[in-house]
Amino acid sequence: SQQGEEDPQALSIQEGENATMNCSYKTSINNLQWYRQNSGRGLVHLILIRSNEREKHSGRLRVTLDTSKKSSSLLITASRAADTASYFCATDSWGKLQFGAGTQVVVTP
Amino acid sequence: DAGVTQSPTHLIKTRGQQVTLRCSPKSGHDTVSWYQQALGQGPQFIFQYYEEEERQRGNFPDRFSGHQFPNYSSELNVNALLLGDSALYLCASSFPSGRANEQFFGPGTRLTVL
């Protein structure tokens, strides 16, 4: 079973636009992480937000966490064609990552 | 600094056979986790090794077993392969759990069972 559920399942935007995806989870967590995967290859870590944090930034990425609602969001600003990928949230329970099914993002030039 | 490496890249087996996949962690990491990713799905946690012992296990049958060597590298073994075992198998390394940290993933081994 999967802990996180991403929404939407797919997202198509144009370069320069912002992309927002959401993640909901079911149980308590130590932290929540976001990963990117290109074309079925290995996952690349994007950002980690601890359970006592509410917002975190990294370059063009902004992540929020609401533990009361058991939800998180990932915002990619000023998207680029190279941002085309699948994005996964993963809840971390003592090193065991539980992933959602992911959001497929397509950025067209 | 070499990242996580996995071998082989691709593998084709037939039902009932056995397979061994290999993983070398990122330099300085001592914890290895294995994940199975079916097409169109997110990765599913199989198990995690630390200090040569299985520390956590996901919901996978005993046909899935592993090993960690003194140099922290790891193997994933799958016996009596089923068609449903066809997937991308990902290895990830990290520092010991108990600390909030990221996991570094290898490129994966794509297993096809015919």
Q: Determine the strand fraction of chain B and express it as a percent band.
A: over 45%
The run of helices and strands of chain B is EEEEEEEEEEE
Radius of gyration of chain B from the CA trace?
A: 13 Å
| Largest interface summary | A-B, 27 and 34 residues
Query: How many extended strands of chain B?
Result: 11
- Assign a percent range to the helix content of chain B: under 10%
Q: What oligomeric state is this? A: heterodimer
Give helix and strand order of chain A, one letter per element, not per position: EEEEEEEEEEE
Principal-axis shape of chain A = globular
Straight-line N-to-C gap of chain A = 36 Å
The amount of helix of chain A comes to: under 10%
Spans where pLDDT lies below 50 across 5 or more residues of chain A: none
By secondary-structure content and strand pairing, the structural class of chain B works out as mainly beta
Q: Which structural class matches the secondary elements of chain A?
A: mainly beta
Tally of helical runs of chain B: 0
Structure summary, number of beta strands of chain A: 11
Strand content of chain A: over 45%
Please, how many helices of chain A?
A: 0
